[in-house]
Amino acid sequence: MLVALAPVTLADASRPAQHAQFIGSQSCAGCHQPQFQAWQKSHHHQAMAVASSETVLADFSNITFDDGYQALRFFRDGEKYLVDAEGIDGARRTFQIAYTFGIEPLQQYLVEMAGGRLQALTVAWDTRDGEGRWFNLRPGESNAAGSPLHWTGSAYTANAMCIECHSTAFEKNYDADADRYASRWHEAGVGCESCHGPGGDHRAMMSADSPPASNLGFDFRLSREHWTRAEGAAIAVPQAQSPSELMLDVCAPCHSRRATLSDAPLPGDPLFDHYRPSWLEDGLYYADGQIHDEVFVWGSFTQSRMHAVGVTCNDCHDPHGMGLRTEGDGLCLGCHSPEIYSGDEHSFHEPEHVACVDCHMPATTYMEVDPRRDHRFSIPRPDLSEQIGVPNACANCHDDMTSQQLADAIRAAQPDDWRPRDSIAPAVHAVRQGRRTPALARWAADKGLSAITRATLIAEVGESAQPADLALLAAAHQDEDPLVRIAALSTLPRRLDRQTLQHALNSLTDERKSVRIEAVRALLPVPAGVIESRHRTAHLKATQEYEETLALNADQAQSLVALAELRASQGRMQEALAAFDRSMSRHPYFLPAYANSADLRRQTGDEAGARRVLKRGLQVLPGEPDLHFALGLAHVRNQNMTAAMPALAEAVRLSGSGPNYAYTYAIALESQGRLASAIDVLERAVEVSPNAEQLSSLLENYRAKLARGG
């Protein structure tokens, strides 16, 4: 069965007025031929294209791919590229490939589906050599139809997840009521105007007789900084103030891990007016700031000393052809003195055996075949690997040596008085393990650290704020960097009082939209009547911005849950419950929808409704300890201990004796006279979480009680 759908609407004369000046990359070719030709060979140009014999690289000659987890057949019908695959309902169908996605080291393929969706196949084509092969992007996983990780699921809806950065002037155009997309873009692929902005005024100005304006019809001009290295100097310095932040505002929207706040922002707009970047969160980055998940460069580069001194993206990368300006160590040695940095005295290796990037930009492979280099430009730290288990670049080559041996080798090569630099990593690692050390606040106050690092530390301090931290957190609300201000606001709901409330109210008029929205989120627990009249206009305006962001992202489960929480804070309970229900229906695998909906129903006295929601969640997420735990507590409130005990026990089992679950279950066991069983539960939990003081204290209490005869 061939699924025939209307094509996604491309740009035409009916495009909104704000994009009237986009004229397309082809219009640039006449006057900018060298740049245009370089761009045509680039990954940007080939980021997305209509599927054709010129753009499709994969083998569609009736090839079957079956690795035991996914089975697809790729074939052609004339000029059509087709795939036989399992559809959204689990039945096999034939789908037509609409677009290619990417070029090297892999190429993905987009299929048009109902509701204007473009879905990315999770079997891709490896383009690294002339032979090529089909491969599974999620090997070893059985993601059935209906799962968000199935190729028809929400994680692979390109309208929401990908096309924004693979096209020029993208508009998602999602209709939440109809659950449909009418996505549009001016140009498939990342064109000239994706970076330079709309070219209409530029073309008109350069065609006119009058002298052109300073920016030649654009809102800004991008230029490469010129660096000079004085004779005998170790490192080059910029000749003038660097345009680094402007360059990052252009590049970061696609080269960062972030949330989108605005529809169709223009290139060069301030990053924090349209996006909310992530800081060094657990799961995205290791405790020392190394890349872990796919984070797309900005977060690692902004940690670096390179960024701090003004190095820009196009100092190293040709912005048109996308290649490096110079291959090999020559790129680094253009600014770093070869006499100092190219010898074995610096690297402890013969120069022909190791490259600068091997040590300072180790690569992590994503999507099975795509190595991405860490842009922190850091020094390898096997001592931290030994101490807290983070990776280190040395081990990539010296896999026959332990971290301790590698650390000892580095120490042996250094002067006697050498010691490794202090690092935030032990403090961050400790707090991620549930232990806060005094170093955490000390590091958070260090203005010499990068803004993204300080934001990370401020967020962690705020999670476990102590009286001595209040001045530090108050100063963070006034920090010059928006991400630090966002971090300070992010933990306010857990520690709101009269003083901290004022920080959130003042932030409603922050110059950056992302900060204003975070202020609204911080104020959700605050009744409207508590907000002073002088802040109400700003609160209403910032709330409207937040609602527009939630509407833009209403195709995402987390936005529906956030909308529900906003409506609940406004006292609009039926709308809140409706938003929760929409999230559960359209995104059935999203845990917070069930947990938060049940909690809201409990708060409004609907205990039976809360239990129904939790049971609904367990039908699709039977392995989630949070849902079992919440259901157990709901049964406790209903005085149904017969039902509560198995649910609490299952939460403990599924969580691997998680401390919160074990603590509550042990108390429940003790209340039923099963003291020995409670002690067994606590002993297992303390083995897993030896630093959980509450668990240890309860265990000692129960052991003493048992010794007294129960």
Q: What do these coordinates show?
A:
The relative contact order is 0.05. By secondary structure, the protein is an alpha+beta fold. Helix 19 packs parallel to helix 21 (482-490), helix 30 (641-654) packs antiparallel against helix 31 and helix 31 packs antiparallel against helix 32 (675-688). The strands form six sheets. Strands 1, 2, 3, 4, 5, 6, 7, 8 and 9 form a nine-stranded antiparallel beta sheet that branches. A two-stranded antiparallel ribbon has the order 10-13. A two-stranded antiparallel sheet has the order 11-12. It has 33 helices and 19 strands. Among the domains are: 17-194, no CATH class; 241-379, no CATH class. Mean pLDDT is 93; it is low at 1-20. The chain starts with 32 loop residues before the first helix and ends with a helix. It is globular.
